[in-house]
């Protein structure tokens, strides 16, 4: 329960993150029915989205090199980068990411290649593609 009280504090301190309305859309319209094993990619130091989804009855794995361990049963923390070429998504029903930045292209490539449904909320800041090219150019 300590993690859930930290979640309430986090929501107050980070109002720009996933809104309650966006979470509701994720829960009601994007996630398949039933209890799922979900992978959250790029959770940062605190797996807020994993805690919210866990509270809905799903089992979670969160993956980020800087992730902190949580004491919530049913959430596995993997302190590693998500790499589309080496990740095996076979054990997951769905992948979610909130502002995954550098992992965005990796998520799209891995999920489409392995046919795992996914949803992302993007940060709106351009990042270099895996090949090093930026999607925007200066005038």
Overall morphology = globular
**Number of separate helices:** 4
The helical percent reads: 25-40%
Mean pLDDT: 78
Biggest sheet descriptor? 5 strands, parallel
Uncertain regions spanning at least 5 consecutive residues: none
Secondary structure: number of strands: 5
Q: What's the alpha carbon Rg, rounded to whole Å?
A: 15 Å
Share in β-strands? 15-25%
Strands ordered across the widest β-sheet: 3-2-1-4-5
Secondary structure layout plus pairing:
Blueprint (H helix, E strand, L loop, with lengths): L1 H12 L6 H11 L6 E5 L6 H8 L3 E5 L11 E4 L15 E5 L5 H11 L3 E4 L18
Parallel strand pairs: 1-2, 1-4, 2-3, 4-5
Describe this protein's structure.
The structure is a single chain. By secondary structure, the chain is an alpha/beta fold. It contains four helices and five strands. It has a five-stranded parallel sheet with strand order 3-2-1-4-5, with helices on both faces. β4, α4 and β5 (118-121) form a beta-alpha-beta unit. The radius of gyration is 15 Å and the shape is globular. The mean pLDDT is 78.
In short:
The protein is of the alpha/beta class and 139 residues long.
Structure characteristics:
globular; 139 residues; 4 helices; alpha/beta; five-stranded parallel sheet
